[in-house]
Amino acid sequence: MLASARRAGFNAVLVPVPWLCPAGALTLAPRDADQAATADGGTEALHARLARDAHSVAGHGMTLLLRLELQRVARDAHDDTAPDAWYRDPVDDPARDPRLPASERGVRQLREGPPAGFIAAWAARLRRWTRSGVGGYVVHVPPVLGPDAWRALFAPSREVNRELQCLAWTPGLAPAMLAGLRDAAFDGVFSSLPWWDYRAPWLAEEWDRLQSIAPVIAPTCALDGPCADPAAPHRTGADPRRAWSAALSGCGWLADDIGGAGDINAWLQETLMAGPPRLVVGRDGGATLLARDAAADGAVLLALNPDDKATARLDRDLAAGLLPPGDLSPQDQTPPDDALAPAGCARYLLSAASPVRAAPRTAAAARGEGGQARVAIERVTPAVDGGAFAVKCGVHEQVEVEADIFMDGHDRLAAELRWRADDEAGWRSVPLEPSGNDRWRAAFRPSRIGPHTFQVSAWHDGWATFQHEFEVKHEAGASLRLEREEGLQLLREADQRAGQGGASGPGAGLVKRALKVCGVRREGEEPEADQIEMLLSPALAQAMRSLDSRPFESLSAPCPVWVDRARAVHAAWYELFPRSQAAEPGRHGTFDDVIQRLPDIREMGFDVLYLPPIHPIGQANRKGRNNSLRAEPDDVGSPYAIGSAAGGHDAIEPRLGTLEDFLRLVHAARGHGLEMALDFAIQCSPDHPWLARHPDWFSWRPDGSLRYAENPPKKYQDIVNVAFYGPAPKRARKLGLWRALRDIVLFWAEQGVRTFRVDNPHTKPLPFWQWLIAEVHARHPDVLFLSEAFTRPKMMYRLAKVGFTQSYTYFTWRNDKAELEDYLRELSQPPAADFFRPHFFVNTPDINPVFLQTSGRPGFLIRAALAALGSGLWGVYSGFELCEAAPVPGKEEYLDSEKYELRQRDWRQPGNIRAEIARLNQLRRANPALQSHRGLTLAASGNDRVIAFAKATPGQGNVILAAISLDPFHPQTARVEPPYALFCPPWSAELVAEDLLGGQRESWQGGAREVALSPDQPYRIWRLSRHG
């Protein structure tokens, strides 16, 4: 067996401790933990037996691991193994109670404590075993001891073997139990994969909890095998889904069957995994998708059919949000239509694709042929201002293109959609299909980030026109002699074009065969049946299309598309001030203090950490607490007053740390699955070094004083304005300033920052932003820009058009049902949805919404649900999770704002909504419908204080329904109309509704659903499907 395991690629063998157990025992509880049974019925010292076993295992290049049970012993255990003070007898004899499991029979359980002397005795025992060659231990019931006890227990053994692996068997443990293991220093934990049914979303949620303790190992079986736990699903024979799921989801895997494992281990050697697994469960004939990044580059997608009896298909709309940029190709023999056999699985490898490198676009592309073309192409969508600005989409997202295409008369037309990345020479193409009323439709999925272009091409289709007329006359019984001659003429012309072009493919061959079949004719005779069949065949139509001369071909104007990485479309942001993160009151926080908070932030499910400006803060006109114009000597000032003797926008505030400290934070954040976002604020204190070096970059008043910044009604006396243009009459661009600002963004991008929140961009020139973003994207197409522009709608939209990736919105001030519905509808549909990505921040350091000031904890839950479910992008400013809302009287500002002072907090204080935020973020990660601002369907609720809406992916592979009370003070009931119309046929749809908060499943058919909401639970969320 050892040789087979090694050939299969395994590097460790796990066995129970071979200690002496009672004859016929139902458990592995020891009778003597220092003796082992021999083949002749005798006993020997256990450490000697282990030495032989470890030597044998090591001889095959593997490590011996032992399954360790400390929580119980046999009832007749020897005194050296179980002193009376260590273990307790059961109150009743479990052998007489058939309701109790086998694990309770014939055993005594460890007392809580642990008992005096227990740790020292077992630490010495494990040290002997380790010296005998044992390479690690799998603790069966880890909650039996606390973290300090586990560390003390294994410490002597770790001194013997620095590479000792101490692993905790954690399947099925509740979150509270897992939290108790975080400081136990285990080297690995185990997922509950053997109990997964390939449909439930908890696998990824559990992984998030486990990885905060130690690397996650995925087992394919329960420790005691199929008979140990009747709740564990086990099928007859090997299940490749289980094995491949373990290989993909774990940092290692534990198998009980060597068969097929060799291929998996060989694949793992070539394709090392990194980062967390990403999971979307399949519904209604869709495959469950499990994705994970490769350590080198690219990613792997595992498609699993959860059904043992029916086929399932890969839904690429569901896969889009799981994958980084790159080209997806199957590694297994997957059918062309991505269909998976019952109980089947298939792997897809995503090869990383480089970003598109192209010169910045400086003007709209040339227009199409306009009114001179015989074939008209009109109303091409999506297009932003007729193609003047780029449509936005995410990588792998399907771009659905439509156009009106028509021509004089009744002849048939053909059309295709052409698209390419802007650094590619050749076009890719896909046929457009008519969808009625001269409207044509096709789609493409870009796999690289950066600029792309698409065009619509249309032409007169002579062969389709011929086939249509031929078929109509054939069905009418009319003569087809002349029509056959017309067809032959078209075939000869196509054959001639094939010869001139050197075409030798299947299309050219089929045309020649058609000429041979149809060319046999007698004077005056009608075409034979085989000739008619040939002339009407779809295969010949396809061949003729490939050789078409495309008469009267028209081209639409090129339409630009900007493709972003997934985090541009779907992200949860957490904003904090680094200087307020110190644990001790009054101490100025540092980047190292932020590092200490990373697990806490990730636990709530956020994936972007946003820092306000981290640059040196000026002394001149420094603001005091609560925006006072008078600063005391110990006041820290506003971080938006950038610049001092310590440097400007490319420097770091000394009290936060150094650049090296910041880079360490960026690296640590990435290790917790958090991307760093920085504030780019074009604001200077009067102490900024630029004022001495480049005084001409600033705005000066007639009396020689500097013009300070204003954003009415707010005034910023500690900030002065730069001037983007020179004086009259030329008003020339100050290119030196423009380039310096560009270089600041490029500098931080080189430090690993790929996301920038831009402060008040609406107060800077639009041409500047269009130029700067294009310049940055030419070097780093993956950089994202968030516009913080609370201003007029048209300006907010224009900023998005000129290149901003995301935008703050009016969501903060939309509280009533009607205005929320209107706003959600506006943002989720074209034209806005094609270029404007709404970012729903629930609060900011500048905005303490009135609704939150007066609504208490329920109000915070309401706004969190509206933001997290209403858009693919949402964010919170720290303190929101603690329901902080104390205002400056009469203003939407925080009292004692940390814009002007340090604020230490108790991040676990009672009344917080951390768990609710974490659950909302879990649901967003698990449901692609919640990862976009699109796909909205408003639902009637019959109550003006309850808003209800559905979010769905394009093919309805994932549909979420939410009902949210807007009343933080009183219970509300509603009659919510489920979106039956999303399912086909809607009039007979019976839906399975999974309650994503309560866990129940119901069958819904027709009519409204009665929903009760309360201030303590103001929202309900369901996942809807036809079959569950």
From TrEMBL:
InterPro entries (alphabetical): GH (IPR017853), GH13_cat_dom (IPR006047), GlgE (IPR026585), GLGE_C (IPR049171), GlgE_dom_N/S (IPR021828), Glyco_hydro_b (IPR013780), Ig-like_fold (IPR013783)
Keywords, alphabetical: Carbohydrate metabolism, Glycosyltransferase, Transferase
GO molecular function: hexosyltransferase activity; hydrolase activity, hydrolyzing O-glycosyl compounds
Biased composition (Basic and acidic residues): 79-99
Binding site for alpha-maltose 1-phosphate: 623, 683, 718, 760, 899-900
Signal peptide coordinates: none
Record-marked site positions (Transition state stabilizer): 846
A biological process from GO: alpha-glucan biosynthetic process
Record field: catalytic activity: alpha-maltose 1-phosphate + [(1->4)-alpha-D-glucosyl](n) = [(1->4)-alpha-D-glucosyl](n+2) + phosphate
Region (Disordered): 79-106
This enzyme's EC code(s): 2.4.99.16
CDD domains membership: AmyAc_GlgE_like (cd11344)
Active site residues of this protein: 759 (nucleophile), 788 (proton donor)
Top-level taxonomic group: Bacteria
A family per Pfam: GLGE_C
Residue intervals of the Glycosyl hydrolase family 13 catalytic domain: 575-924
The family this protein is said to belong to: Belongs to the glycosyl hydrolase 13 family. GlgE subfamily.
Subunit structure: Homodimer.
Its biological purpose: Maltosyltransferase that uses maltose 1-phosphate (M1P) as the sugar donor to elongate linear or branched alpha-(1->4)-glucans. Is involved in a branched alpha-glucan biosynthetic pathway from trehalose, together with TreS, Mak and GlgB.
Entry protein name: Alpha-1,4-glucan:maltose-1-phosphate maltosyltransferase
